[in-house]
Amino acid sequence: MNKPLKSLVDIIHQAYDGLSGRERQVADFILESPGEVSMYPASELARLVGVSNSTVTRFVQRAGFESYDEMRLAAREARNWGSPLFLAPREGEARPGKGADALIAEFAEAEMAALRHGLEQVSPALLDEIAGALSGARRLGFLGFRNSHYFAAYARWQFVQFRPDTRLLPGPGETLAEGLADFGPEDVVVVVGVRRVVGALPRALKALDGRGVRVLLITDPSARGMPALARWTITCPVENPHVLDSYAGVLAVLRLLAVATMRRSGKAGREHLEWIETQHEALGEFD
Asked: Is there a contact between 236 and 117 (Cβ–Cβ < 8 Å)?
């Protein structure tokens, strides 16, 4: 995402751990849709969140803004950059009497919205920057816990086709510490952290930060604090009108990153892929 939106979101994440409970309510409201705060005066924001005007004032100060107007300006710039994280109005679950055809239509619409909103978080400049880092990294790692482990493994499978030294962290039989020990400033780790996030993930991010590893975090709007430990963050909405979260946007973003990075890798990436395909045949792996 480009600078105005990233700056506003990162500032709030960096301050999040030091906020009081009431101040976190303000932070949560803004993080759900960063651009919308540009439309509200401080008193209206306080009313919508359900806190006092003084709580909003303290939040603004703790976040590092000189005034509420300065924060509104940052939010306005974020809004001008692109759509808020939640554009589509939420609707209730399809009623049982509506039939399967209505459910399929509503489901398709929600999935397309999730995919579109996820991809909207990746500007051309950000995609180019990340693809260059993923292509040029000495070593590339992929990390995720619980359901995020599946997405990290999927991403690693995409990248292993065209570049060497890609690892799923931790490896089989490894502890996380053993897996991370080989990584440093010349490397990149793609971290997938979509809800629900377990406590091990923030600790892993702190360990990577301590080693100077560049981190790309793929997360959802419920993330708090973790983006402050990442070089790049892409936030993919997962909520939708149905009972289960949608990860269409997460998968689309991961695949987009792989396609862009393979293009960036050029001849070396193509030769790597050709060698793998040749060996598939020589080894009879698909017989």
From this structure: yes
The listed CATH number (3.40.1640.10, 3.40.50.800, 3.40.50.10490, 3.90.25.10) that belongs to domain 119-281: 3.40.50.10490
Contact 59, 68 (CB under 8 A): no
pLDDT-derived band at 276 (thresholds 50, 70, 90) equals confident
Q: What is the pLDDT of residue 66?
A: 87
Cα–Cα separations (whole angstroms), residue 282 to 20, 140, 276, 285: 62, 27, 10, 8
Structure tokens at 156: 């690693």
Measured CA to CA, the distance from residue 17 to residue 232 in angstroms comes to 20
Boundaries of every domain in the chain = 3-81, 119-281
CA-derived radius of gyration, the chain: 21
Residues constituting the chain: 287
User: Can you give the pLDDT at residue 82?
Assistant: 39
Reported as a pLDDT band with limits 50, 70 and 90, residue 272 is confident
pLDDT of residue 77: 66
Question: If we measure between CA atoms, which residue out of 167, 197, 164 comes closest to residue 183?
Answer: 167
| H/E run at residue 283 | helix 248-283
Q: Is the pLDDT of residue 87 over 70?
A: no
Q: What is the pLDDT of residue 93?
A: 41
CATH of domain 3-81: 1.10.10.10
Q: What are phi and psi of 113, to 5 degrees?
A: -65, -45
Is residue 91 pLDDT above 80, yes or no?
no
Candidate ranges 73-77, 123-127, 242-246; pick with highest mean pLDDT: 123-127
Q: What's the gap between Cα 247 and its chain centre?
A: 11
Name the burial class of residue 227, with classes exposed (0-12), middle (13-18) and buried (19+) by CB atoms within 10 angstroms of its CB: buried
